[in-house]
Design a protein that fits this description.
Number of strands: 13
Shape: globular
Strand content: 15-25%
Helix content: 40-55%
Radius of gyration: 21 Å
CATH topology of the largest domain: Aspartate Aminotransferase, domain 2
Number of domains: 2
Structural class: alpha/beta
Strand order of the largest sheet: 3-9-8-7-6-4-5
Largest sheet: 7 strands, mixed
CATH architecture of the largest domain: 3-Layer(aba) Sandwich
Distance between the termini: 46 Å
Order of helices and strands: HEEHHHEHEHEHEHEHEEHHHHEHEEEH
CATH superfamily of the largest domain: Type I PLP-dependent aspartate aminotransferase-like (Major domain)
Amino acid sequence: MDKLQQFAAGELDTLRQKGTFYRPRVLETEQKATVIIDGHEVITLSSNNYLGLTVHPKLREAALKAIEKYGVGSGSVRTIAGTMSLHVELEEKLARFKHTEASLTFQSGYATNLGVISALMLPEDIIISDELNHASIIDGIRLNKTPRKVYPHKDMAGLRRVLEESRGASKVMVVTDGVFSMDGDIAPLPEIVSLAEEFGAFVMVDDAHSSGVLGKNGRGSVSHFGLDGRVDLQVGTLSKGIGALGGYVACSQDVKDLLMMRSRPVLFSTSHPPSVVATCIAAIDLLESDNSLVERLWENAHFFKRGLLQLGFNTGNSETPITPVIVGEGALAMKFSTRLFEEGVFAQGIVFPTVPADRCRVRTIVTAIHTREELTKALNVFEKVGKELSII
């Protein structure tokens, strides 16, 4: 056995001994509320398909029409021959939707954070980050040569302290998630923006789990707090609330033009295929014209969250449709997830290093397309398994 094989086998043995090894389950149907995974019919609470747009008839129709007209791929990177009229249309719609001057799309939300941070921040600058920001933000900062400072989660006194320490830097960026993906709590964006303005810094907010969820017609956390015009960079995904694939940054025209020239994911990755772009355009059109899906999402979220709390589960500080069920030790979280699946509910276990070792959990996300019957059945399964494992 060579050294690489020995290393891999040893690491996997360690995970198995801890009870945290798992193989990704395989989805065999479209991403509805009840699906077939690994041959079992289950209610899924692990999809980011907040509004159910992955299966919406208007998005399906838009994708098919785009394939018929433009083919299945763009053929190149944006700066060579891969910018299509559909890309331009989507970015114009996104900018209007987010109330910014311009927007630029990327291949994923992960690529957006890496591409924006690395292109805009230099060694003489400073990046200030919430300690619980998403891994894509953390990786974007680590891959850059810009010095970084971290403040305790949502601690505004801590943010003030590091802003004071950062005086004299050429540029200072404060970056935060709008909604934190593991705990479902919302960033105190008004306070963050006010502090940044006081110290001459600028703000970047990642609305991956806010787009389609918070704000007027799902515009995100900036809209939710009425901060239009005061946040320089609004990053989001097109793969969660929007239902398709990709990421974007909503910003000024000058920032967009600079990113087009310097951002490595734009320069070195082929642009989105026409079908994906067309579905995103259809999704934005749908959100702007009809808020009913967002309203239904929140009705379902409140119902399910209230049910979990009444049963005695620890849901942490969740304020959004992301509701963790915190159980503590990693092996218990994975056993909990497995038993839920066997009883007809798919809710993925989340363990260290994604979350702290003593706060492992099953993370749940309800959507607008869950029925009350499905959510009630899921709560009954949570009660049965929670009592069986002495979690409640």
